[in-house]
Amino acid sequence: MEVEIRTDLPARIKVGRKRAKDSDPQKVGLSSGLATVESREVQREEEISASANAPVVELEVVRIPPNPRLVICRYQILGEERRCMVWVGRNSYFVPRMKFWLVEPSDPTARARPWPYAGPLPRRRGHW
Questions:
Q1: Can you give the three-state secondary structure of 30-41, one letter per residue?
Q2: Which residues have CB under 8 Å from 30's CB, separation 6+?
Q3: In this structure, are strands 99-103 and 56-63 parallel, antiparallel, or unpaired?
Q4: Which of 50, 79, 96, 123 lies in the 20 to 30 Å Cα band around 44?
Q5: Does the pTM exceed 0.70?
């Protein structure tokens, strides 16, 4: 008696990244790889020009809160003192009276939330 073995699996299993069958970028509305690089450059230039128009303010650390990622700072605008929270990532090297420069958010609702800090962290406690 002969036994036939049948399987639903393909003869060879493809290893690697799975792709959709309808992955034609022009059909879906995506551009080619070269165009995405160009669009990224245009977007980066727009961000730079937008940040160039935003005022840069000098912040002074007032207090280190219990949250290990925040510092509370103050800054002067038109002779008026304002306070803000800055998301620094790790506040262990920041001390009160340290000063640093940061771009002020243009959106009023973003000013109420912690401002993101993307610069270098201090090398040692209290020293840049």
A1: CCCHHHHHHHHH
A2: 36
A3: antiparallel
A4: 123
A5: no
